[in-house]
Amino acid sequence: MDSFAQNTSPRAGTWKTLVAPHAGWTFSGDAMGQGYRWLAESNPDADLVVVFGGHRGPYGPNTVFCGDAWETPVGNLITALPIAQELKAELGIASEPEKPGRPDNGAELHMPFVKHFFAQAELLMLGVAASEDALGIGEAVAELCRTHRRKAVFIGSTDLTHYGPNYNFTPEGTGSPSQQWVREINDRGFIDAMLANQPSQALKHSQDHLSACSPGAAIASWQAAQRPGEITQGHEITHYLSSDVMPSDSFVGYCSLVF
Question: How far apart are CA 218 and CA 3, in angstroms?
Answer without folding.
Answer: 25
